[in-house]
Write a sequence for this structure.
């Protein structure tokens, strides 16, 4: 059903308002297909092969994909459900490798993998046997670890399939696992390096960088982080929040709050411990990312005399922890001179922190006194 | 009903730098265009003017560095408040899936603009982001995923290069801009302008669009059925700073026919309109040449466009 493209003669300027963003948006249409709220444990999906006699290369590839690459923490720092077959081959979802010439999900004649319904523990992921009678030119890269046809008489006997188009079964399984857990629609508008959720499965010719991608790309990861939260709050946020939530320049706002008093009086030769919380904004748009502690990030503490406007920056620093609530940073503040000083604590984003904006500053005052102090 | 149908289917010299106003040039059918001519430089504003030099956001006048390899990186460069989608960005491909420590094209572009400074960045129209640190003389550059060389050009083709790499701790850092010999656009033999009908439900921006040099319609009905010649034309148009258009109709995806219209206006990102599952979306993105029959892929950074119905 190829669209007819007739000539058009209209002339007009293209006037499109580009939103001031630096990256894309989390896969549109994402949802926590397995209900998950902040603080909930990560869901584990049991699974098995529908037939234990599938080719060894397929079983190895499928298991590696679901149980290792899928949850690789650098590419997928999210709590999206993970997969574990429990060391047996029973229960949970099913991985089915089928020679069926039409899609088991839709009946369509062109298919390579499918998942009929998301969000169910008794799921099925279908993968098509290729090459086969109904797809004689297609092949899986993982069968022989190459896109070369080794079964054309050299070096192995001719199997009768003149393969010429190569796909990654691991990318297809990653794609279907994303349908199962996160995203039912496709994301055809996503760029090559943003998502693996296009409706077309790429070949090495079409996407030399990502045709064999075995885990999320940046906007898949952003969607998973929104829906299921971070696996490791000290890890990276995906670089794909500039449109949604779209706060500030990088997409996600951080907030700095104090949990200790804003006015303190203390002997000049005794330290004062100040504490607070550094986290992402606690707003509904952030879904499971709301109030996520910015663990491992540096809190910079500046100081100025109460009667001055000049700050001394970075006099102290603290490192935020992963505490889910309450204070997640503290710092013993000291002075070498008495007097009243104003302090401020701020998180300043860095070049690596591509999704999180600098925080507001939380301020407090300490009156360092000499009266009644130990010598 | 989620299944994947097959794809059906991507001698440096320092110079003083001055800037100019953007001028789009549409070339006629079949002629070889040297690319758009530079416009008159305005009042001597250099491409690199003010850039951050220290913490606290202080700035100082900065002209291109006198040495090809600046001695120290820029400390805490101030981010530039410009959308990367407003620049033409050509990202070099790593050829295979890049390693985890690879510097993303958009990160390199953003840091390079910060190093150039706000005034100069406002006059940059094009960024070519390659892998590998700059090298002197004729020695081949070592190709490293954790180092980027960003070549920034103004509308008058004045050229700066900026190195972005990682320090020993793995943190990104950017170096001061270095003046380069002026690099004009590559010559391009532009096809005749056309703006084929892309359907009654297309957004107004497409229905009423200006006809650009038309590289063709790619109709994909079997995997890898790329229209290599048309795609090469489009990429060459981008290289030549010449407005071009390419249409791709892919009938193999699970979402039915996916129609993609790629338009390059001679400036800014590649406008990419996609019709999938009966809905249109649009963005301006970067382009990455690839050494396959697909010639290029569209890559991030992307800035979403909101097409009018």
């Amino acid at each position: 059903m190829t669209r007819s493209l007739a000539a058009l003669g209209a002339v007009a300027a293209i006037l499109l308002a580009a939103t001031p963003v630096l990256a894309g948006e989390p896969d549109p249409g994402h949802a926590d297909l397995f209900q998950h709220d902040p603080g909930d444990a990560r869901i584990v999906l049991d699974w098995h092969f529908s037939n234990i006699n599938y080719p060894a290369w397929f079983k190895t590839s499928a298991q590696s994909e679901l149980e290792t690459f899928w949850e690789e923490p650098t590419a997928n720092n999210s709590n999206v459900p993970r997969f574990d077959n429990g060391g047996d081959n029973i229960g949970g979802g099913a991985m089915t490798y089928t020679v069926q010439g039409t899609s088991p999900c839709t009946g369509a004649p062109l298919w390579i993998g499918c998942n009929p319904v998301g969000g169910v523990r008794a799921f099925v992921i279908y993968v098509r046997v290729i090459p086969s009678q109904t797809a004689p030119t297609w092949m899986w890269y993982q069968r022989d670890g190459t896109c070369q046809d080794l079964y054309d008489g050299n070096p192995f006997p001719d199997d009768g399939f003149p393969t010429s188009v190569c796909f990654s079964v691991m990318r297809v399984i990653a794609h279907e696992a994303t349908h199962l857990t996160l995203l039912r629609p496709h994301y055809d508008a996503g760029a090559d390096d943003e998502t693996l959720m296009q409706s077309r499965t790429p070949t090495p010719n079409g996407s030399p960088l990502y045709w064999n991608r075995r885990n999320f790309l940046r906007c898949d990861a952003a969607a998973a982080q929104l829906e299921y939260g971070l696996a490791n709050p000290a890890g990276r946020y995906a670089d794909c929040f500039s449109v949604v939530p779209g706060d500030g320049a990088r997409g996600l706002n951080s907030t700095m709050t104090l949990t200790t008093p804003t006015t303190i009086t203390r002997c000049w030769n005794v330290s004062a411990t100040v504490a607070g919380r550094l986290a992402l904004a606690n707003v509904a748009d952030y879904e499971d990312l709301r109030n996520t502690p910015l663990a491992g990030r540096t809190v910079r503490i500046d100081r100025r005399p109460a009667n001055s406007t000049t700050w001394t920056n970075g006099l102290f620093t603290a490192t935020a922890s992963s505490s889910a609530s309450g204070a997640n940073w503290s710092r013993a503040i000291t002075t070498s001179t008495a007097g009243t000083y104003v302090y401020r604590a701020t998180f300043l984003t860095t070049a690596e922190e591509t999704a999180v904006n600098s925080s507001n500053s939380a301020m407090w005052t300490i009156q360092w006194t000499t009266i009644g102090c130990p010598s | 009903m989620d299944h994947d149908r097959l794809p059906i289917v991507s001698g440096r010299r320092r110079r003083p730098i001055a800037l100019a106003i953007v001028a789009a040039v549409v070339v006629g059918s079949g002629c070889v265009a040297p690319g758009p001519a530079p416009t008159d430089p305005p009042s001597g504003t250099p491409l690199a003017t003010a850039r951050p030099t220290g913490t606290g956001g202080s700035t100082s006048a900065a002209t291109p560095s006198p040495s090809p390899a600046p001695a120290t990186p820029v400390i805490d460069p101030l981010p530039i408040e410009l959308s990367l989608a407003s620049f033409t960005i050509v990202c070099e491909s790593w050829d295979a899936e890049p390693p985890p420590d690879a510097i993303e094209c958009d990160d390199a572009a953003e840091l390079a603009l910060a190093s150039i400074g706000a005034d100069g960045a406002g006059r940059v129209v094009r960024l070519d982001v390659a892998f590998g640190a700059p090298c002197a003389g004729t020695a081949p550059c070592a190709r490293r995923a954790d180092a980027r060389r960003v070549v920034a050009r103004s509308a008058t083709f004045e050229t700066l290069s900026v190195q972005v790499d990682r320090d020993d701790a793995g943190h990104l850092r950017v170096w001061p801009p270095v003046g380069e010999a002026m690099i004009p656009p590559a010559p391009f033999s532009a096809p005749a302008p056309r703006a084929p009908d892309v359907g009654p439900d297309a957004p107004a921006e497409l229905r009423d669009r200006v006809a650009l040099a038309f590289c063709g319609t790619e109709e994909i009905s079997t995997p890898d059925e790329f229209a290599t010649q048309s795609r090469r034309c489009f990429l060459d148009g981008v290289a030549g700073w010449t407005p071009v258009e390419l249409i791709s109709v892919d009938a193999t995806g699970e979402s039915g026919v996916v129609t993609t219209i790629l338009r390059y206006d001679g400036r800014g990102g590649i406008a990419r309109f996609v019709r999938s599952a009966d809905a249109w979306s649009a963005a301006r993105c970067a382009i990455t040449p690839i050494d396959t029959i697909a010639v290029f892929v569209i890559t991030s950074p992307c800035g979403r466009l909101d097409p009018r119905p």
User: Anything to note?
Assistant: The helical segments of chain B are 105-116, 118-121, 204-207, 228-239. Chain B has a mean pLDDT of 80. Chain B touches chain A through 97 residues (CB under 8 Å).
